[in-house]
Amino acid sequence: MGLAKTLALIGILILIGIALELLNHAIHTVLKHPYDLKGAPQVIDADTIYLDGWNVRLYGLDAPELHQICERDGQTLQAGREATHWLTARLKGRTIGCNIESWDKRYHRPVATCYLDGQDLNALIVFTGWAWAYRRYSERYIPDETTAKAAKKGIWISDCAPAWDYRHNK
Q1: What is the C-alpha to C-alpha distance for residues 35 and 38, in angstroms, rounded to an integer?
Q2: CA 65 to CA 79: how far, in whole Å?
C-alpha cells in the first residue's frame, strides 16, 4: 500500500471517529434532555405560554381569545379568561417539556406539543373543553374535542364561536 492510500485510510478513520464521537454526544444530550424546551412556564393565554425564553404556541389547538365571551341561556361565560385561568392553575409551580413541531413565521415563535408529567398537555386542554382541535393544522386532538363536547365541559357548556371565527369577525 502506498503512502497516499495509507494517508487516505487514516483520514477516513479519523472522520469516522469524529462522526462516532458526535453521534455519541448527540445521543447523550437527547437522553439527558428529551425536550426541545423545558422549564416552569408562564401562561399568556390558553394556547400560548412563555417558556425557556420563547413565546410558545401550543400545537393543534385553538383556545378562546382572552376577552372572548360566550353565551348560554342568557348567561355569559368569560371563555378566554376561564380557559387561561384553568391552564394557569394547572401549571402553577410545575415544570413542563415541549417538543417543537413547527415554526410560526408570522409571530416568530415555536409551535410545540408540551408535556406535563409525561401527559400530552395540549390534548388535556382540548379534552377538558378549554380549546378546540385546530383542524386547519392538525387532526390529532379531534377525539379529545369530541369527548369534551359530549360531556359539555369547558367551552362546550355554552354557545361559543371557535376562536378562529371570533378573530375573523372582530
Answers
A1: 6
A2: 8
Q: What are φ and ψ of residue 35, in 5° steps?
A: -110, 150
Report, in this order, helix, strand and coil percent for the chain, each rounded to 5. 40, 25, 30
Return the SS3 of 25. helix
- The span from the CA of 9 to the CA of 3, in Å, is 10
pLDDT in tens, 28-41: 444 445 799 999 99
Q: Find, among 108, 102, 106, 91, the residue nearest to 41 by Cα.
A: 91
Q: How far apart are CA 150 and CA 136, in angstroms?
A: 22
CA distance 6 to 20: 21
Residues of the chain short of pLDDT 50, as ranges, are: 25, 27-32
Output the pTM of the full model.
0.80
Query: What is d(CA 152, CA 129) in angstroms, rounded to the nearest whole number?
Result: 8
40-50 pLDDT, tens digit per residue, is 999 999 999 99
Reference 96, options 49, 32, 38, 46; nearest CA is: 38
